[in-house]
Amino acid sequence: MTDTWIDWMEAETDTGSWIALDGSEHIGTVFCRDDEWGGVWTTPDGATLYLAETHADAENAMEAFECGIDEGDESPQWIHPRPGRDQGWTASKVKGGFYRHGRSPDERFAIATVKPARSGSLVWVAALDGERIGGWFYSAREAMHCIDSSACVPRQD
Fold first, then answer.
1. Contact predicate 73/46, CB 8 Å
2. Most confident of 21-35, 106-120, 140-154
3. Between the CA of residue 18 and those of 9, 10, 26, 63, 114, what are the distances in Å?
4. In what order do the strands lie in the sheet containing 48-51?
5. Which range among 36-45, 72-81, 88-97 has the greatest average pLDDT?
6. Once rounded to an integer, what is the mean pLDDT over residues 31-55?
7. What's the confidence (pLDDT) of residue 8?
8. What is the C-alpha separation between 86 and 94, in angstroms, rounded?
9. d(Cα 43, Cα 68) in Å, to the nearest integer?
10. Which pTM was predicted?
11. How far is CA 18 from the centre of its chain?
């Protein structure tokens, strides 16, 4: 049992990911990749940390996630940063938004972008090498979580 109170909301993805909420704020995601469960947490100071170990099911990954938050960002539950990924997001000078270099889920080099929707509405979109990922996001941070967790799948429309 942990001291941290986190609300878990099932994400609308084919992978069955879970979104960690602190009140109404999206603070992380527990996700499945290759039949193993991992997690990503954005700390209060904005650092992106990943669970150090994968788990057999979502429940164990959520428990490790909560323990890691209880222990803080220096907990052995977390790794800084995930190997093979550049966790830094850079503000874009063109059209607003953010970008980062990194690796796609199949480990090829990729550019991830998060930017405001063209419609001018207050929603954000996420893309990996120009291919839209996930749905609409209500904040840049939420879209970044989607890409960082690799829990999102390309849109099928």
1. no
2. 21-35
3. 6, 4, 11, 12, 21
4. 7-10, 18-22, 25-33, 36-42, 48-51, 78-79
5. 36-45
6. 83
7. 92
8. 21
9. 11
10. 0.55
11. 10
- Give the least confident one: 73-77, 95-99, 134-138: 95-99
The Cα–Cα gap between 153 and 42 comes to 20
Which residue in this structure is represented by tokens 């850079």?
90
SS3 string, 113-132, reads EEEECCCCCCCEEEEECCEE
Cα angle 9, 41, 120; round to 5: 70
Rounded CA-CA distance 97/15 in Å is: 27
User: Which two three-digit tokens encode residue 89?
Assistant: 């997001």
Query: Length of the chain in residues, anyone?
Result: 157
- Three-state secondary structure readout of 40-79: EEECCCCCEEEECCCECCHHHHHHHHHHHHHHCCCCCCEE
- Which amino acid, one-letter code, is at 113? T
How far does Cα 26 stand from its chain's mean position? 9
d(CA 94, CA 102): 20
